[in-house]
Amino acid sequence: MTETAKTTEKPGARRLFGYIGLLAFLGGIILAIVGGAVSQDNGGIVLALVIMGILVGVLNVTAKEVLPLLIAAIALIVVGNTTAFQPLDDLGGEAGTKINQMVAYLATFMAPAAVISAFRAVLALARPGD
Q1: In Å, how far from its chain's centre is CA 108?
Q2: Could you count the other beta carbons within 10 Å of the beta carbon of residue 89?
Q3: How confident is the prediction for the chain on average, in pLDDT?
Q4: Taking a C-beta distance cutoff of 8 angstroms, is the pair 114, 73 a contact?
Q5: Does the structure show a pLDDT above 70 at 4?
Q6: 3 state SS of 4
Q7: Cβ distance 42 to 7 under 8 Å?
């Protein structure tokens, strides 16, 4: 008798990956906001955000969430590469600069997740069938 090996994912592993993805998402959002308020152009923060963005892209994004994620990521990346909030500095303080940095860090966080999701979408389109 021969048995075919079935590759099944354990429910506990799926739950663990879900928690890791959730923690990476929440950690990335918090780090982007706090990092933007406290530290500008910090390489360590950027590296942490990219790693968390990769985790989010691999572990969190489902097929039906790809399009909203890509649209949101495009908006963040476009606004994150501008100085849209700079006029707030004219009111006093550095509020505009800090908000610009927060949005730039959010864009840095979401870019890897968007690339992974876009790549998965292209692979799904290229798959023969249906």
Answers
A1: 8
A2: 16
A3: 88
A4: yes
A5: no
A6: coil
A7: no
